[in-house]
Amino acid sequence: MKVLGIESTAHTLGVGVVADHSPYVLSNVKDTFVPREGGMRPGEVSHHHAEVAPKIVKESLREARLTIKEIDYIAVSIGPGLGPALRVGATLARALSLKYRKPLVGVNHGVAHIEIGYFSTGAQDPLVVYLSGGNTVITSLVEGRFRTFGETLDIALGNMFDTFVREAGLAPPYIINGRHMIDICAEEGENFIDLPYVVKGQDVSYSGILTAALKALKSHRRGDVCFSLREVAFDVLLEAVERALALTKKKEILVVGGVAASASLKEKLNSLADSWGVELKVVPPYYAGDNGAMIAYTGLQMAKHGAIMNIEESHIRPRWRVDEVDIVWR
Fold it and tell me: How far is CA 249 from CA 126, 155, 204, 256, 322, in A?
């Protein structure tokens, strides 16, 4: 069985191909939109995706050494994400499905991040820490669904870092040689600045620390603010993770999503894992950001269990939560 997966929820148009046998991932090609200035505008993102999509599909099939006729299923991320960007991927998937008579599989973007984490790390029954531009969720699989054991009450960790570096005049680009600008800037920090530390029950909040950090730029060195912001933001997260570990008593922590690529966060999580006697597993950088392979891989698991959908049911779901998905394949 071979599945072509399409990712278009945010800044990345990705197409991957996977098979149900080794080496499983046959291709993983993507093109990421980088704004000239400011943040992402949904209209510009969708225009980018529509422009590069045909080329990315062809390159992915060529890398997989397959033709579209040799593909068995078309998988596509239908949410959560930016509406205009999601529509490009969904329209492309419907067109391929109809023209080549391939069944369609609708994938939740967050679940796909988690599934590629399982696949790439060998995790068995972890507490999952899902960190990306739009998501900060601590979750674990319980009786067929990922249950939430903590999440952000306002903005996501990745979005908070993106907003800060943009307002501080450090971005775009937000990532240079695989490192976020907050990490690069934090290396210039020498002094710690007090910033709001907010954990509410098992949830976290980042809007207050963002506001305080932006105000601190007027009276402190930028490197000191970057360093302090990153340290407090990660420590807030770690406290929430620690509370979830105490509750669930899991023996593995699986970290997925684009923020998982942070070396500083990994170092802190390693210390936490050692103190609790649990194993830390972090998705490799190749699969950490948005990509088509994770959609194809999750689509493969779903297709094996008959979780396909009709074209009429393939509407996008911009606010589709991870804990709303029935995980029928585990």
Answer: 10, 27, 20, 19, 21
